[in-house]
Specification:
single chain; 169 residues; mainly alpha; 3 domains; two-stranded antiparallel sheet; 47% helix
């Protein structure tokens, strides 16, 4: 899911601009797309719509990688990961952390943790069970991080869901 280059909302218009013989992807939300389409003249040039500056500032900066840097456990290099799209082992997340964070933020709309989705036709009890599992996992992480305020909020949410299940709701 791509973000709008101007306002960071979800982009739903994807255009490829050709400038100086190079292709530049332009991802825009509906309102920015309307503005963009209103300022594009018949020759295809955007007269006053300056997306290039914003595009360069919103594109994640991926730090340079030492080409000889490899995971000490599986031996995969960053170049091999980029070519295949797959990491070699779980340790690669730490070895290539600086390069992975911008990629994960781009994929997960600014977040670096995948939380998954529930199918749209799931029963309420299955949805509550999924939420309980998710909250318990978050609670464990909050306790490990000694973030007790968040842990208390999660404990209350878990209790409310458990009470709802006990009462047949």
């Amino acid at each position: 899911m791509k973000k709008c280059l101007r306002c960071n909302k979800q982009a739903n218009l994807h255009i490829t601009e050709i400038k100086n013989g190079k292709a530049h992807p332009v991802h825009l939300c509906e309102s920015c797309a309307q503005e963009y389409l209103n300022v594009v003249d018949l020759s295809g040039k955007a007269e006053s719509f300056d997306f290039e500056e914003e595009a360069s500032s919103s594109t994640p900066d991926i730090p340079e990688v030492d080409p000889t840097k490899a995971c000490p456990y599986c031996g995969i290099t960053h170049k091999e990961f980029r070519a295949s799209g797959r990491l070699g082992c779980s340790h690669d997340y730490e070895v290539f952390r600086e390069q992975l964070i911008p990629l994960l933020e781009n994929i997960h709309s600014g977040e670096i943790q995948h939380v998954g989705k529930c199918p749209p036709r799931v029963s309420d009890s299955s949805r509550r069970h999924y939420e309980l599992l998710r909250y318990r996992s978050l609670l464990k992480a909050a306790i490990n991080d000694e973030n007790y305020e968040t842990a208390a909020e999660l404990r209350d949410k878990i209790q409310a869901l458990e009470d709802l299940e006990e009462n047949g709701g």
